[in-house]
Design a protein that fits this description.
By secondary structure, this protein is an alpha+beta fold. The protein has a domain of about 240 residues: 3-Layer(bba) Sandwich (FAD/NAD(P)-binding domain). The chain contains 12 helices and 20 strands. The strands form 3 sheets. Strands 5, 6, 12, 13, 14, 15, 16, 17 and 20 form a 9-stranded mixed β-sheet that branches. Strands 1, 2, 8, 9, 10, 11, 18 and 19 form an 8-stranded mixed β-sheet that branches. Strands 3-7-4 form a 3-stranded antiparallel β-sheet. It is globular and about 60 Å long. It holds the Pfam family FAD_binding_3.
């Protein structure tokens, strides 16, 4: 007999798997389908990326029971330093002691392991890994996906969580606005002489931002940070091919002595940067979450957090509706989800795109204007508090799942 579940989630990355687990904690069942092998995704060295988890996103992980698994693996972000080319006039976002941290840094591998382990223990989640989808269907009676081995999975609501290149979104004909920045983000782990003191650095150069994100020390006490270095598309290949010594020399040229000597660099990888935003995030028995709906520049570290806000809002809407006797694919519920998430996601996307463009304007005059503006914000507590709350994700109409 077919195993019909409430949700049919297509895409088992960080956002898709968090959705499945969050839904299960509210009594909502799901199929989750992903083409990847979990063993590959959690292998050492598969993905050197790290993610900043905001206060609101950490509340979500706490509310779904992941905090104990993740707590020892995260590095607090105590403050954020923002500077234009390391010149005077920088911004220092440091909350008061009673306000807690600005977030936590986690290796993506650690997030995946925690999510995968929790999902494998949850009976309301049917996890279909290493599975290709050959057909998707949505009609008045429900949704289905046919897998490459002939199995057919059924649900009431289809969720597109496959990321930026979502085939489910494209097959549904949802209009998408997008452009590329002609830049690539180079990702690497750095080991350095001085402690980072839990400070995240965002250093803006004309070619793009140069971010240094605090990570936990190695077991031998060596200090670590994650590097996200934006370079022009034409320069990316050459930068990746630099010897470790030459690469570290370029890093040191851009950060000065803030970390002392940078002693080693881990494996390097890169990915292209672009912007996209869909005209709508729902269709008949279909909801989009995460990068399937909105892809933004990593300038403010909000990409994953934006997807987790989608998760919190969608599960809140569906669970509340199901308590009233509505089924998950009900058009009223999907409309509520779109109204809740559409404006917030669009606002964040525009803000990150605006920052990217403002800090990319070349010339001494533009730099001087930016530094004057940052100095003004530095002297205005109410503005600093606003930006810190935005970084924490604790502004606006928050889903209950994202509240402490």
């Amino acid at each position: 007999m077919d195993d019909k579940r409430d949700l049919l989630i297509l895409g088992g990355g960080l956002v898709g798997m968090t959705l499945a687990l969050t839904a299960a904690r509210r009594g909502v069942s799901s199929h989750i389908v992903d083409r990847a092998d979990p063993a590959d995704l959690t292998a050492e060295g598969f993905d050197g990326r790290a993610s900043a988890i905001s206060t609101a996103s950490w509340n979500l992980f706490t509310n779904i029971g992941l905090a104990d698994r993740l707590e020892p693996l995260g590095c607090d972000i105590a403050s954020i330093a923002v500077t234009d080319q390391m010149k005077p006039g920088f911004l220092d976002f440091t909350p008061e002691p009673h306000e807690g941290t600005l977030g936590r840094m986690f290796a993506n591998r650690d997030l995946r392991l925690a999510l995968f382990e929790a999902a494998s223990e949850e009976p309301l989640i049917a996890w279909h890994s290493k599975s290709e989808i050959t057909e998707r269907r949505r009609d008045e009676h429900g949704v289905s996906a046919t897998l490459g081995d002939g199995r057919k999975l059924h649900g009431n609501l289809m969720i597109a969580a496959e990321g930026r290149g979502s085939p489910t979104r494209d097959e549904a004909g949802i209009v998408i606005a997008k452009w590329i920045y002609s830049h690539r983000a180079i990702i690497a782990g750095l080991v350095h002489e001085k402690p980072h003191n839990n400070v995240a650095w965002e250093i803006f150069y004309e070619a793009g931002p140069f971010a240094l994100l605090p990570m936990l020390d190695l077991p031998d006490g060596s200090h670590r940070s994650a590097l996200v270095w934006t370079v022009g598309e034409d320069d990316a290949s050459g930068t990746l091919k630099l010897s470790n010594r030459a690469f570290l020399a370029e890093v040191t040229k851009r950060i000065g002595n803030i970390f002392g000597e940078v002693t080693s660099v881990g494996p390097r990888s890169s990915y292209p940067l672009g912007f996209h935003h869909t005209a709508k995030i729902v269709d008949h028995r279909l909801a989009l979450i995460g990068d399937a709906a909105h892809g933004i520049h990593p300038i403010a570290g909000q990409g994953l957090n934006l997807g987790l806000r989608d998760v919190g809002a969608l599960v809140d809407v569906l669970a509340d509706g199901m308590r009233l006797g509505l089924e998950p694919g009900d058009a009223q519920l999907l409309d509520k989800y779109e109204r809740w998430r559409g404006l917030d996601a669009f606002s964040v996307a525009l803000a990150t795109d605006g920052l990217t463009r403002i800090f990319g304007i070349p010339g001494k005059t533009a730099s001087a204007v930016r530094r004057l503006g940052m100095a003004g914000i530095q002297r205005t507590p109410i503005l600093k508090t606003f930006f810190m709350d935005e970084a924490r994700g604790v502004t606006g109409d928050m889903p209950d799942l994202l509240k402490a």
